[in-house]
Structure formats: C-alpha cells, structure tokens
Amino acid sequence: MYLGLDLGTSGLRALLVDGAGVPVDSVSESYATANPHAGWSEQDPAVWVAAVDKVLTQMAAQHPGEMAAVQGIGVSGHMHGAVCLDAAGSVLRPCILWNDTRSFSEAAALDGTDQVRALSGNIVFPGFTAPKLAWMAAHEPELFERVATVLLPAGYMNHHLTGELFADMSDSAGTSWLDVGARDWSEVLLGAGGMTRGQMPRLVEGSEVGGTLRPDLAQKWGMKGTVSVVGGAGDNAASACGVGAMKEGEGFVSLGTSGVLLTGRDGYAPLPESAVHTFCHAVPGQWYQMGVILAATDSLNWLSRVTGASPADLSRELGEEITGPARLRFLPYLSGERTPHNDARVRGGFLNIEQATDRRAMTQAVMEGVAFALADCALALEKTGADLRSLLAIGGGTASSYWVQTIATVLGKPLDLPAAGDFGAALGAARLAMVGCGAGSVDEIMVKPEVRATVQPVAELKEAYAEAFAAYRASYPAIRDLA
Question: Do 2-231 and 244-418+450-483 share a fold?
Fold first, then answer.
C-alpha cells in the first residue's frame, strides 16, 4: 500500500492506493488562509501538521489493515511558499504563499539581475520564493537574520514526517534559486537573493527516497516496518504524474482555482520572456512547461458571489453547446496575471456592457475570457517549441460541457475527458512513492487514465472565436495602465 498526500492551499487530502496504484480511499481536511494586508496570503505550517495528523488518524481507523501495509509516502504541495526555520528548527513566521504579491518590487529587481533568467529558466514572479526572502531582508531584517533553512510547503511536510531536510527538483525549480537545466542549487542565484547553499535543503528527485517516516508517527498511524518518504513534487508536476503527462506532447488543461496549460518536455528549452514556467519534472531526465493564469474557476466563483447564483446554476443557463462568442468581453485578471503578461498589478473587468447585458451574458463572457487566457498560454508555449498534440481536460471546471467545448474551439485542439476516477496530485504523489519503493518504473506507473470522451473544436465557429480572441488580446495593452 502507498499514500499520496496533497497539501493544497485550502486543505490537505490523503489518498491510499493499493499495490497496483488503484485508489482505496481518501480523507480530506480543510484549513483557512490569512490575509492580514492587501496582497498578503499566509498560512501557519502548524495547520498542515494538524491536518495530516487528523486525516491519517482517520484513515488508520477506517483501514487499519491497509495502513499497516503502507510502504511509501509521497507529498505534493502548493509551490513557491516560504517556510523559514531557525537554527533550532522552529518556524519563524507564517508561510508566505504562492498567491502573495507583496514582493513585486523585489521580484522585479531580481528579475533584472544579470544571469538570473538565464540560470533559472524563468521570469522571477512575485509569487516565487526568492523575492519573498528578499522582502523579509528589507522589511523583517531581524527575522531574516535568523533564517537557517528555507523549505517549501511540501518540503516542510517531508521534514515533519521524517525529521530530515530535503526537497524535490520540481518544487525547487519554482524558487528562482535552482539552476533548472543543471538540476542543482545555483551559487549565482542564491547570491543574487542574499542566500547561501547552507540554507537550502538537500535535493532529491521526486521518485527518490529522501527519508523514512518517524517511528512515533508510524506507530500512531498504525504503520508497520520501515515506511519510505520520497521527494514528492510540486502540485502541477504531481498532477502531471497522476494523468501520465510525462513526455513531449503529453499535457493537460486544468480548470481549477487557477488555470494551467501544461506539457511534458524531453529536454530543457526555456523561454523566460514568454512568461512560460520551465521547471524540472518530478522524475529524472524530464522537464515540463506550463502557462498559468491566476483565476480560472475562481472567475466563475467570483461571479457566483456577486450574483448569488451557484456556479452550477450559472453554467446550466448556458446549456451544453456553444453557438458563438459573446460581444461582452471579460478579462480574468482578478489577481493580476502570470502567462504571458507577468503583471501583478493589472486587474480584470468587463468590456462592452450594455443595457441588455444579463447574468447569462456575463457567465458566457467569463468562460470565454478564461478560454482566451488559456489560448494566450498556448501561444506562449508553442513559441518554446512545445508540442500540444495530446491534451487532457481536468479540474472542477470540466463539469461544464459548454466551457470545455469553448476551450477546445478557442485552442483549436481536441480535449480528452478522463473516465471517472482519482487521478490528481494526490495520485501523482502516491505514484512517485510507488516508483521510489520499487513497485515499477516511471513508464509502468505513470500511465494515462482511460478516456471517456473527446471534445472536438466546433469547426464552423473557429473563425468567429479567432476574431474574438484577437479582440481579447488587444484589450490587455489598452487597460494595462488603467489599474
């Protein structure tokens, strides 16, 4: 048996799988995020510790025999967060999360530093880890001086489970301290951010054993014998492992809180100026690239809060089939935007509102705006040479047939819908544990899910959506300086 832990922004999920990788059961626990100031987003790592204890205690009560047979654990975590430990291993301050934008000035300064983009393979985004520590140095110098180790959220969970300090390549690639091509910490990048190699955890591949579960925790959760804890992965790399998007031409569109268009890469091909993320994959010798938009289903959730109608009700009003783009246009920059703009300050809006505009029109515009933002990501990825020939559609937003058909038509690519099942980040983390424990090779374990349907682009509407997309792309430079 194997466990995958998905440490998300809003909660932690534990997935138990058998020796064939088939899910047995899952348990989840939610927690809150603190926003003490505008643009700030923080969590106390103690809530993650409490959550993992609660879910695994419950799992042990429900499946004592299976938990006793657990051989390996993999952790997936939300990326870019900064957990700072002092020399005694105590947490110095709440973790600054991926969606925290306070360090935009520090990010810009690091991004303009010689060799930073060339070595990291990426723009330094405000959400990345390095600018967070630069912000601490400027605004919390007493705490910064006490930082002995910086861990990412998944790395902190690994530390809690094993007592050791290690992190995987895929997660570490989002810090702006890792030489992503060489898969190692960079002295140049660390120096640019005022950090040292001694403050970094030991690097392992995501499918490599980094430590063993503490005996007290194993006993508490009913596990027998030695339980290996592998490097794990950042959440998107883990999701790619869960759906088998490992190699060139294998990818997915994720309609979650944020939106992701990701593809595996057989080699290292960065293009930082495109605002595409180029990261190490969770397994040796592979990389992945992705375009990220900050508000996908979050845009529909926002409209739901404003209108008082549930997201499902809003979607239901549109029906199942698209008939052509709306004149109303929505720009989904509710929290700024990453790909392709790298703009933390821009904000979203509606264009072409008129007297006849109603809730249905606004819902359609929101879904189309997210689809256009993902098409922006596709253009950026294709500039790097990425092949987007095979794409799965995953995430909560895919429950809307209308939305999936819109995205397929805007991208001009068929989208495969997986059969019902469990194939997200928690499964990817469990699969990494399986590989690390010798249950099979990457090719044998990281397989694609069964496809229940393929959504084709609507050929006769392709030109109309292309014109609407061109108008959407022209909107950003027009509103950029108005925010």
Answer: yes
What are the helix (H) ranges across 335-461?
A: 359-383, 401-411, 425-436, 442-445
Distance separating alpha carbons of residues 133 and 120, to the nearest angstrom: 16
Q: Which residue has the tokens 């060799």?
A: 115
| Superfamily of segment(s) 2-231 | ATPase, nucleotide binding domain (3.30.420.40)
Question: Which letter does DSSP use for residue 166 in this model?
Answer: E
Q: Are 6 and 425 in contact (CB under 8 A)?
A: yes
pLDDT digits (tens, 9 = 90+) for 413-454: 999 999 877 778 999 999 999 999 999 999 999 999 999 999
Reported as a single tens digit per residue, the pLDDT across 199-212 is: 999 999 999 999 99
> Domain map of the chain by residue range?
2-231, 244-418+450-483
**CA neighbor of 447 nearest in space, from 242, 231, 254, 284:** 242
Tokens of 202: 């030991």
Which stretch of DSSP H or E encloses residue 72? strand 72-77
Do residues 432 and 231 lie in contact, with contact meaning Cβ atoms separated by under 8 Å? yes
For residue 349, list its beta bridge partners.
331
> Catalytic annotation on 235?
yes
| Residue tagged active-site, from 6, 100, 168, 235 | 235
User: Does residue 210 contact residue 158 with C-beta atoms inside 8 Å?
Assistant: yes
At residue 387, what is the residue type?
D
Q: What is the pTM of this model?
A: 0.91
E strand or H helix that includes residue 67: helix 64-68
Of the ranges 5-9, 69-73, 332-336, the best mean pLDDT one:
69-73
- Judge whether 80 is annotated as a binding position: yes
Q: Residue range 148-154: average pLDDT?
A: 98
DSSP sequence for 256-301: SSSEEEEEEESS----GGGT-EEEE-SSTT-EEEEEEES-SHHHHH
For domain 244-418+450-483, give the fold.
Nucleotidyltransferase; domain 5 (3.30.420)
Q: How far is CA 437 from CA 33, 208, 234, in A?
A: 34, 8, 20
DSSP 3-state of 452: strand
The residue to which tokens 């950042």 are assigned: 234
